[in-house]
Design goal:
Blueprint: H1 2-29, H2 33-50, E1 59-61, H3 66-76, H4 78-102, H5 104-110, H6 113-125, H7 128-135, E2 138-139, E3 142-143, H8 147-167, H9 170-174, H10 176-190, H11 197-201, H12 217-223, H13 228-245, H14 250-272, E4 277-279, H15 281-290, H16 296-308, H17 312-319, H18 323-347, H19 355-369, E5 373-376, E6 379-382, H20 383-397
Antiparallel strand pairs: 1-4, 2-3, 5-6
Helix pairs in contact: 1-2, 1-3, 1-10, 1-15, 1-16, 2-14, 2-16, 3-4, 4-5, 4-12, 4-14, 6-18, 6-19, 6-20, 7-18, 8-10, 8-18, 10-18, 13-14, 13-15, 19-20
Length: 402
Amino acid sequence: MLHHAKTALAGAQILFVAFGAMVLVPLLTGLNPALALLGAGLGTLLFQLVTKRKVPIFLGSSFAFIAPIIAAKTQWGVGATMFGLFAAGFMYFIFAGLIRWRGLEAVHKLLPPVVIGPVIMVIGLSVANSASSMAVGKSGDTQMMEYGTAVLISAFTFGVTVLVTVFGSKMMKLIPILIGVASGYVFAAILGEVHFQAVLDAPWFAVPEFTKPEINWSAALFMLPVAIAPAIEHIGGIMAIGAVTGQDYTKNPGLDKTLTGDGLGVCVAGLLGGPPVTTYGEVTGAVMITKNSNPIIMTWAAIFAICMAFLGKFNAFLASIPLPVMGGVMLLLFGTIASLGLKTLIDAKVDLMRPKNLVIASSTLTVGLGGMVVKIGDVALAGVGLCALLAMILNAVLPDKD
């Protein structure tokens, strides 16, 4: 009995570590946080089913999809966006099939660092504008909070998150976003900018409102290439957790199985109306610090996440977080994603003086960030999808010369 209680407690700790990032994605994209928790819980359980519960991995909301969700919602609406997110899961199945057929080398050949790096940079930087708007209290063109107060709150939140990231203890460094948002929330409440009435009025128990997907092939084509970055990130995540536990999960249960499990999680999350899920580095860090790599812990974390999805007051509390608090965290967050793209280029020692590399990196960034749209009949390609496709084509056709 005591053993089960300890395992459950370790599961609650994992959920706490993943929590800040997991609910941040729906809060930034205007999706329902309850559905993000439900999608993460069900996604993790599906992943465990496919991989026979061999890998200590928790799947939470993916940051890679923040910008594309915001863009797709504006262009096609929520229902079509959800269909696009459901379709994104199939990219994982394509990679799983490719790895099963040709091995991991085929993926590296199709997507070398010179392709992945600039695409990840576009994913981070394409929402830099909305981060800045939220930091000054704006939603779209509407000023939701007095400018001076908003800047004060976002600067405080940003400052705390930076301090924790740089100077925090090992455990604190796993949850800088959670600490930053909590501190910003308290500061905003002291300034009288938090409205608690909705939390008081909300029921304790509430079934989340599910979003019905609407079939839209433009949205699907827009989202499919977005999944390339998190699918590659998944491969890295599986290797990282393997390094921590001293096991080779790429062979047992195998990358094709782990990718299929993650892809199923993405499909289910999209059908529910939540953001797609991905492997969480924070959770790998927590496994490393606690030295507890029993996959049953992740089962407990998933069960707790599903339970929390039905707490009405809790979800109303999340909705009460002021805009500039989110903006303050986003200023750091989106730049971090872009920096990871840069790190991909640096780690692989990509030589940008080689004409092929220079052409791929330059055109990917310009097309991805310049708002370019290519229309073929009723189908439109833009943003991350368009620049990822361009990078892959250029990489395939250009000769590698000095």
